[in-house]
Design brief:
Layout: H1 16-22, H2 27-40, H3 46-55, H4 59-68, H5 75-83, H6 90-100, H7 108-112, H8 121-131, H9 140-145, H10 152-165, H11 171-180, H12 184-193, H13 202-212, H14 217-230, H15 236-241, H16 248-260, H17 267-272, H18 279-292, H19 295-303, H20 310-329
Length: 330
Amino acid sequence: MTINYPTFADLDEDYADYVLQLNQEDENIRFVAIMNIADEEQAELLAWLHHALLHDPASKVRELAATRLEGWEDAITLNTLAQALTDQHENVRLAAAQSLSEIKHAESAHHLAPYLQHQNDFVIASILRAIKELRAESLFDDIVHHVQHANALVRKEAVSTLSWLQKQQGLSTLAKIAQYDSDAEIRRIATGGLGASQSLNPEILSALESSLLAKEWQLRVEAALTIGKLKAVELEQTLLQQLDDVYWQVRIAVARSLGLLKSKAAVNKLTENFQHDISNLRKEVAIALGEIGGEQAQAILLQHAEDPDPEVRKSIRIGLALIQEKLNAA
């Protein structure tokens, strides 16, 4: 078996032993060599990591190289990692995808942009995930192109990346996805993305209401939180209905949002949830009542001031402080 790791004419003599180790047939020796080379953290040695990732016959050596290339964002490294997304071994592909997902510099998105046209769905999904937090607005059209992809993995990453862009022209697309995509998790991500809206039009309100009434409780939670974030008072009545949701996780999100909406109409139904066994729900009810304020909310909080859970009692004190702050300001 021929390994053929490259040598460098101007190689520092301190690194000379690596050449011998890298060209050993024993994959364990090469593995240790790559690990030690990576620990050097020298740009001049990256060529060995690139070669290992694309050409070493041992998958564990390729996987190690993919992992240790994390944090390097030069064009050659990024392209090498992107090429490794089609490696024959899944562990190598996943390691390359993970390293790419950690990129931080905006210009890296442009080096990876050509791979959004790749024929391999895993490659496209991985690149979308990699550029998500970079908010590459110049790639808006490429990202939108993939939100209707046949592969749910690609759609999920495209919708998530579009949500992170927070561009107003993408909200109509997100609203449609939130209502009509066949995958509940994708609808949930799109629903959360609507939180970037700067104005509430009927299309967005309809999408939020649809998600709030969806059969999947995770989607109802996302919708409730997004409604509160947007202060969407138009959906106050629908939120009130969900204070009876069978899932306490949904009730927590609904209580939080009704507090943000300062919903006086919610006080009575919030009070009913003070009887729930889940202390986290009671905590959220206490804060919501404090946000809403008023004499009725204050009386309810005082009535429950001796709740058996210390964290709930703490939230009640916070709620009462919020009400007192409002009274002092008035």
